Structure of Leucine-rich repeat-containing N-terminal plant-type domain-containing protein:
Amino acid sequence: MKLKWLLICLILWFQVIGNNGCFEEERLALLQFKASLESDEHRSKFPILPSWIDEPENNCCEWERVSCNSTAAHVIHLSLDNLWNFDGMEYIYDLKVSIFQHFKELRSLNLSYNNFGGFVEKEGILLLYLNSPYL
C-alpha cells in the first residue's frame, strides 16, 4: 500500500514540476536550423534568434518563438515567421525541412514571410501531423 502511494506521489510530483529542460535532440535540431540560416552570406548581418544559445544547460523551451508541452517538455509550437528585416531586398533561401523530423510532438509550425524559395531534403518531415502548418 505504501509503495502505491509513493508511486502516486512521484507521478503527481513529475506532473507539477515537469521536465527541467527540453530534449537534447530537439535543442540540437533548433540550433541546426539557426545555423543553416546564419550560414547564408546575405543574412549574416541580421541578428537571428539571439536567445538560441548553444550551451548544454540552456533550456530551449525558454527560447523565443518556441513553445513546449508543460509536462513532457517536447517542442509543440514553432513560430518562425518573419525572421528577417529584408529592407526591400529579395533573398530566396531553400529550407532544409529534414531538420524538423526531430520534433515528434510538433503541432504547429509557422515559417511564413521568410522568402523561402523551396525545400530540400524532403524525406522524414511530419507535416501530416501538424495541426497548423504555415509555410
